[in-house]
Design brief:
Radius of gyration of chain A: 21 Å
Helix content of chain A: 25-40%
Strand content of chain A: 15-25%
Largest interface: A-B, 88 and 88 residues
Shape of chain A: globular
Number of strands of chain A: 14
Distance between the termini of chain A: 36 Å
Structural class of chain A: alpha+beta
Oligomer: homodimer
Low-confidence stretches of chain A: 1-5
């Protein structure tokens, strides 16, 4: 079949006519034929349970391709992770593209292949989609939205309300890898070749954890705003305080060096393949064991605990040299378009 | 509570820190508190069935506000309609915003109120969301993605494969209203005040139709590409032909005048509150009766029938003056950013 407009996306590819049909049938559909069995506007799904999790995320990361991933892989893994930390097994994703006129088909092809591969790796099917084209200058290359449906794990009920003083705080691996990779790549700084985003889907590991250890209370993936944001949100919502130990927080050396050089606190830097879990102190070692057996949890660590609040709820860190400081909710201007 | 940055969206509102938290807690959450009971990344839902429909759409319409609606109302109704025509009852939507730095809070407020109102009117809850901010120039104001989950109606099984020669083709009302409204507004032409988008959610009507009349075979909302695109897709996929009668196709006079003046074929113009239904000839009058009792189906009409294909499958129209012509799949360049 001949395809009109071989090199670049045209506005007409979004018009709902012949060219849209070509774009979808020839370039997009073939990547996702397993899940997208029919080109109707809605997917029909038979779930294994009526209890589900449902989530959405739009991805606007810049640059589109980075060490360790690209916007496509991120769009799958990020949404998989949101379902995973909610205590569900991800089953189906939607895929919605907003593409700028003039975007190269070659790049689109790479991104779609990456989405397809990440979906397979994470055992989720892309079951429904949408493509919109906007004129040159009205978007920045490509934005991707994925929504996800996960089937809730039986007997698992995570929530802020389960968290109590004395609970342990676990992080599943090194922090800051994604954010420092993106940032270094944008700044074009030297050690970028040694940095690599942690972009990965953690559902296999979280499902194993939740199935094998009873009583896990809460999980969250520390993306935008990093560990600092996640812990502050837990503290703010529960009214409890959190104390963490700097020496127990796993950080790759290059990430730490990049953060120091660029003046960032690694606690505020985004992650895309990690989770924070709040677990009863008595189960913390079991959880750690399960994490460390999994490729994505080898560097998991118990980084601190939930404590009673004396004055106002705070997140406090015991520093490497024995001091203490408050870990504040980051203001938000650090890293635009990190995911 | 004091809000930082009162008039306009800042990049930092998307950073995942304090300002993101403010934006979400103070401006977005209050509009959707019914469905968004907890600010976690995934919604937990208890469905009434394991058989669901799942759909996604990104909305990039320009201008953001138009006669009869705005991007917010459109983002709810469009996704509701995709679920409706798939034979399901819409229950939950996600809401994902991509906002350009500098976008006015006042406009955001209007759009969110509109989303909230449309969700209530259509009996769906906004249950999960996401907000991304991109720098000025990297998007055009605001783009909205909604995904939807609908519970499939028992005993209803719609599909291209059910369609047979002899079936009737029904359209639920006048065509071209949405597209011509947007286009006229963009062009600033005179009669725009008399044009009004048909933007509406048709799920109440489609559910009634599917529950009261057995044997409805297929439904589709003729959005981008209009009736021409929908009928051609049916013809192409089934291998059957379709014959429609121009005199039976309901078109508002002002829409027809606008289309004639601007040189558009009204058959190719987008609709946002209409559906096409393929029904057995024997049930067509019953279907019409049900449609006409509903405010959104008052001008419903049987516009033609599915026929055997003699040579290649075609959509043919018998014109007002007794001629015949082929209705082609539109090429797609007519109307960018119509939805």
């Amino acid at each position: 079949m001949k395809t009109t407009g071989d090199a670049k996306i045209l506005l007409a590819h979004g018009g709902g006519g012949q060219l849209s049909d070509e774009l979808i049938r020839q370039r997009i559909w073939p990547k996702f034929k397993d899940g997208l069995t029919e080109l109707t506007d809605s997917a029909k799904l038979e779930l294994t349970s009526k209890s589900i999790c449902f989530t959405t995320d739009s991805y606007v990361v810049k640059p589109l391709f980075f060490s360790g991933g690209d916007i496509g892989k991120l769009a799958v893994c990020g949404t998989v992770n949101d379902l995973a930390v909610a205590g569900s097994r991800p089953v189906a994703l939607s895929l919605s593209l907003i593409i700028e006129e003039g975007f190269e088909f070659e790049l689109l092809e790479k991104i779609l292949s990456s989405i397809s591969k990440a979906a397979r790796q994470n055992n989720v099917a892309i079951v429904t989609g949408d493509t919109k084209i906007v004129e040159a200058g009205a978007a920045d290359g490509i934005f991707i939205n994925t929504c996800g449906i996960g089937v809730r794990l039986a007997g698992v009920d995570l929530g802020f309300d389960k968290i109590k003083a004395g609970d342990s705080v676990i992080v599943s691996g090194t922090i800051g890898d994604h954010g420092m990779t993106i940032l270094s790549q944008r700044e074009g700084i030297k050690f970028q070749s040694q940095l690599k985003s942690d972009c990965a889907g953690v559902a296999e590991l979280t499902c194993r954890l939740l199935e094998d250890v009873k009583g896990v209370k809460f999980m969250r993936d520390p993306t935008r705003g990093g560990l600092a944001s996640t812990l502050n949100e837990i503290s703010k919502t529960t009214g409890l305080s959190i104390e963490i130990n700097e020496t127990d927080i796993p950080v790759n050396k290059t990430v730490q060096a990049a953060a120091d050089m660029l003046g960032f606190d690694v606690l505020t830097i985004a992650n895309e393949g990690k989770f924070v879990a709040i677990v009863p102190a008595g189960s913390a070692d079991d959880c750690l064991g399960i994490c460390r057996e999994h490729p994505l949890g080898k560097k998991a660590s118990i980084i601190g605990e939930v404590t009673e609040t004396t004055d106002v709820p705070v997140v406090e860190i015991k520093t490497r040299i024995g001091g203490r400081r408050i870990v504040q909710m980051p203001y938000g201007r650090e890293l635009p378009r990190i995911c």
